[in-house]
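Figure 6 in text form: structure in, sequence out.
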């Protein structure tokens, strides 16, 4: 996720000026749903580490810790108030509670994968943890996937910027990472929307066929 009005240069300057706190808080706040470009902050931290301005292991630790803590908070937000909020949002889009129940059940079946791999996908990185709470995924199971996903994501992002940043400009790295997350997000959206569309189409066809059948003769 990124903000157009915060340039990569500004984020790099903030990370350089405030160091590890900027990286930790940036990722934590993004995971809490605030419009903070956590992915860009992580890449900036790895880029600065590759240029000997920050320590690689401390950047990696901060990125992982911020993601883990943010996911933990998101889970409990979803667990204690997420379903009621989801019902309100669903009514705005004219979605019945039965449809939302189906989505919750579908997510519950894939909650572990969503929490683990959702770190690498725009928006899902923010919403996977609250959705796990809404789906009432067991907390310790969630935390296992949450920690594994956070460490894997932080390791890839920081290492990518640490090594590639020595030969590729930070702006290019951010652009490539953004393109990847957008494509991944579109795939996830299609995975969710297409089955719902097919189900609605099937239900409509069945209703049409039923309405065209003649009523049974009454005795």
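Output sequence:
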């Amino acid at each position: 996720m990124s903000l157009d009005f915060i340039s990569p240069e500004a984020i790099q300057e903030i990370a350089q000026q405030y160091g590890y706190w900027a990286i930790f808080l940036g990722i934590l706040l993004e995971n809490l749903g605030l419009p903070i470009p956590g992915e860009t902050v992580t890449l900036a931290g790895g880029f600065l580490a590759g240029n000997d301005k920050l320590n690689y292991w401390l950047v990696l630790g901060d990125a992982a810790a911020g993601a883990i803590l943010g996911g933990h908070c998101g889970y409990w937000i979803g667990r204690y108030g997420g379903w009621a909020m989801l019902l309100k949002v669903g009514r705005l889009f004219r979605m019945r509670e039965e449809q939302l129940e189906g989505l919750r059940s579908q997510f519950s079946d894939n909650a572990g994968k969503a929490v683990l791999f959702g770190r690498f996908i725009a928006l899902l990185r923010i919403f996977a943890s609250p959705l796990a709470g809404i789906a009432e995924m067991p907390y310790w199971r969630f935390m296992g996937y949450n920690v594994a996903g956070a460490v894997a994501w932080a390791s890839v992002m920081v290492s990518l910027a640490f090594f590639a940043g020595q030969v590729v400009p930070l702006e290019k790295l951010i652009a490539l990472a953004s393109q990847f997350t957008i494509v991944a997000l579109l795939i996830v959206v299609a995975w969710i929307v297409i089955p719902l569309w097919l189900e609605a189409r099937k239900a409509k066809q069945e209703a049409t066929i039923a309405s065209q059948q003649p009523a049974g003769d009454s005795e």
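Caption detail: Residues 1-5 have pLDDT under 50 and may be disordered.
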